[in-house]
Design a protein that fits this description.
The protein contains 15 helices and two strands. With 315 residues, it is mainly alpha-helical. The chain folds into three domains: 117 residues; 111 residues; 56 residues, no CATH class. The longest helix has 14 residues. The N and C termini lie far apart (112 Å).
Length: 315
């Protein structure tokens, strides 16, 4: 086979492959059997000097059959070699590489496929044609780059809102985005401020879900304003009997830290007036003959707030 029949790319890759062939010298100054094999007038005869079953035996027999283009004998010796030495040795790779290159004229596509696989060639580049108008889009589709589209994609890929910051989570609540129960609970667990439109409805939906931890389980519950607490109890009247909810609302009704209830009777009376209409924390019990009532008795005439009587339920 003439090297002029090989394309330049095949020639370049061929040199790269053959450069990896093992050196002929076996030690310092001794060339070894390769010289005997190369200079022998009858190479078939000198092959008898090799020990059957050895690595050299298979290599030089395969090389001889390859040089004489004896495809049948080459296939037999290569199969026997692989069975004897299963590991992919360097000498056998040399024979395989040579065979792929020598077979180019007979089956060029097979050789090219071998070279592509060996060197990981992909040829994914696009040819640049001159004087040709581009057929690629020059602008983005506005319908595909809106905030709502990006938000929906992010929600689909973030079951626990991993890619959302606090401002983005607040935007979800403000815009009443469709959230899964897990996403809704994660959102409520990360926001810090209660001044969000629609927050009460989101909390109500979370408290109504099966896996809710109840009122007070999230920090945002304790940050709700008095108006928000009143709105929430209207949506869930049973919160009027929830101890944590009642205590939270009572704290919202308390005077500021600058007021001393023990010394300021007017502030103490105003505080008691604010808390008097508060729904009782104990659940009502009623029967047809004995209606129940829960009330709180406040001793407003006592000089000290500590004398206020505790809440009780009377039947």
């Amino acid at each position: 086979m003439s090297t002029t029949s090989l394309p330049p790319i095949v020639l370049a890759l061929s040199l790269s492959i053959l450069a990896s062939a093992p050196l002929a010298a076996e030690n310092g100054n001794e060339i070894g059997f390769v010289e005997t094999f190369a200079l022998a007038p009858d190479r078939e005869k000198v092959l008898n000097e090799l020990v059957p079953g050895s690595a050299d035996y298979y290599f030089y027999h395969a090389l001889h059959y390859q040089n004489t283009r004896n495809a049948a004998r080459l296939a037999d010796i290569m199969a026997e070699w692989r069975k004897r030495f299963p590991d992919n040795s360097e000498p056998r790779r040399v024979i395989e590489n040579r065979e792929a290159l020598l077979s180019y004229e007979a089956s060029p596509q097979q050789t090219l496929t071998f070279l592509k696989n060996k060197f990981g060639l992909a040829f994914q580049h696009t040819q640049e044609a001159r004087d040709k108008k581009p057929d690629l889009p020059s602008s983005l589709d506005p319908a595909r780059v809106t905030r709502s589209v990006f938000e929906k994609n992010a929600l689909d890929q973030s079951p626990n809102l991993e890619g959302f910051g606090v401002p983005a989570i607040e935007s979800l609540i403000r815009n009443k985005a469709a959230l899964t129960p897990a996403q809704r609970r994660t959102a409520l667990g990360r926001i810090l401020r209660p001044d969000l439109p629609g927050l009460v409805e989101v909390i109500h939906a979370d408290l109504s879900s099966r896996d809710s931890g109840g009122f007070g389980s999230l920090g945002i519950h304790r940050a709700l304003t008095l108006a928000q607490l009143d709105a929430l109890v209207k949506l869930m009247p049973e919160l009027g009997n929830n101890t944590r909810f009642v205590h939270q609302r009572m704290r919202k009704l308390a005077p500021s830290a600058d007021v001393n209830l023990d010394d300021d009777d007017a502030e103490r009376e105003a505080w008691l007036d604010r808390t008097w209409p508060m729904p009782p924390p104990c659940p009502p019990r009623s029967t047809p003959s004995r209606p129940a009532s829960c009330f709180t008795a406040w001793n407003t005439t006592a000089p000290k707030a500590s004398t206020i009587k505790s809440a009780s339920c009377n039947i």
